[in-house]
Write a structure and sequence with these properties.
Structural class: alpha/beta
Number of helices: 11
CATH superfamily of the largest domain: P-loop containing nucleotide triphosphate hydrolases
Strand order of the largest sheet: 5-6-7-3-8-9
Helix content: 25-40%
CATH topology of the largest domain: Rossmann fold
CATH architecture of the largest domain: 3-Layer(aba) Sandwich
Distance between the termini: 38 Å
CATH class of the largest domain: Alpha Beta
Largest sheet: 6 strands, mixed
Order of helices and strands: EEEHEHEHHHEHEHEEHEHEEHEH
Bound molecules: adenosine-5'-triphosphate
């Protein structure tokens, strides 16, 4: 069984010349859970992931997997699978790409068939990647990350470009990977894209942490209302009034000024009124996210101010000015020979 390891980012700062891509960033990603790493374009997500994978040297701070930097992992390909900058030669097939990589990485051949099946691209595995849709390429990138059967998965925008069926599939798949104990970190610039598959969120904006915690805590903060309906609306209205709950009629029932649906349900149950619909109003979640990332100082409405960084460790080396300073030793990245011809 692959071993999930915690990911820990502490006091991470990365500057590219005058540009501060990430500043004083600290967060932890736990095994056995899917964590959404969220922020608008340019927020610093990719830079953080590149530091985590040893592809970029931090200006200050640390990023570790299982307590050590990526470069110090004993068996990195079995520990971590990452889909960063995955590009494929359009003239080669998916199976070929995987074969080349598996051979170079010393991964047994039967694993190729397994990952093709896991990602649902076995039927197109012998077709040239140039004819693949973006969604099929996303699945191939995921197949690369799974080759070493790693306990830690770091996926950069894996949902981008998937069709609705693909989105449904990947949401369930990410959850399955985490339920086996893996650490699953998924970046996205849209909360709505990942909200059905993540347990935890790390939200950044302009290089700084604005929020970290469970998705449900964010939902609670962003949805101060519940929605309830009953076959007997008059009785439901009377029960809500009797319980001292304020409410207004909505499209699908009553919108109640109570963030905990259980309290609303209890009010109706106490009055012997049947419930046909009861849930937290979710519409505020994306708004709350946008408010959070619209501010960089952590004081946005509905959010918990970001904690002060827990550690700031100056790095020995100079800040890197480009992102190509270290060789990519990442499970998902095909060897150089198969990346020459980028897809158009
Ligand atoms: N190699 C680099 N040289 C100079 N600036 C860089 C470099 N890499 C990133 N940046 C800058 O750092 C900031 C953060 O970029 P980053 O790509 O990490 O954000 P992101 O959240 O991943 O956004 P996106 O979703 O658009 O990729 C941006 O202002 C970007 O222009």
């Amino acid at each position: 069984m692959p071993k999930g390891l915690p990911i820990e980012v502490r006091g991470l700062t990365k500057r590219f010349g005058d540009v501060t891509a990430v500043e004083q960033l600290s967060f932890t990603v736990q095994p056995g859970r899917v964590t959404g790493f969220l922020g608008p374009n340019g927020a610093g997500k990719t830079t953080t992931l590149r530091v985590l994978l040893g592809l970029v040297r931090p200006t200050a701070g640390t990023a570790t997997i299982g307590g050590v930097p990526y470069a110090k992992l004993e068996r990195p390909l079995e520990a971590v699978g990452a889909s960063l900058d995955a590009t494929f030669h359009p003239g080669r097939t998916a199976r070929d790409h995987l074969k080349v990589y598996a051979t170079a990485a010393g991964i047994a051949k039967p694993r190729i068939g397994e990952v093709l099946e896991l990602t649902g691209i076995q039927s197109v595995a012998d077709r040239r990647v140039g004819g693949y849709s973006l969604g099929m390429r996303q699945r191939l990138a995921l197949a690369f990350t799974l080759l070493g059967d790693p306990g830690v998965l770091i996926l950069d925008e894996p949902i981008n470009g998937l069709d609705p069926e693909g989105i449904r599939w990947i949401r369930g798949f990410l959850q399955l990977l985490a339920r086996d104990g893996r650490t699953v970190l998924v970046s996205s610039h849209l909360l709505s894209e990942v909200q059905q598959s993540v347990d935890d969120v790390v939200i950044i904006s302009k290089g700084r942490l604005v929020r970290t915690g469970t998705l449900s805590s964010l939902e609670l903060d962003s949805a101060p209302q519940s929605i309830v309906d009953s076959p007997d609306r008059d009785a439901a209205a009377a029960a809500l009034t009797a319980a001292g709950l304020r409410f207004a009629p909505g499209r699908n029932g009553f919108i109640v000024d109570e963030r905990d649906p259980a309290k609303v349900g209890a009010a109706l149950a106490a009055a012997g009124v049947g419930v046909s619909l009861l849930h937290r109003l979710r519409s505020g979640l994306e708004d709350s996210f946008l408010q959070l990332v619209g501010e960089s100082d952590g004081s946005a409405n509905g959010g918990t101010p970001a904690p002060a960084s827990e550690a700031t460790v100056a790095h020995d080396g100079p800040a890197a000015e480009t992102s190509a300073e270290a060789p990519p030793a990442v499970a998902s990245e095909p060897p150089a020979e198969s990346t020459e011809g980028k897809d158009a």
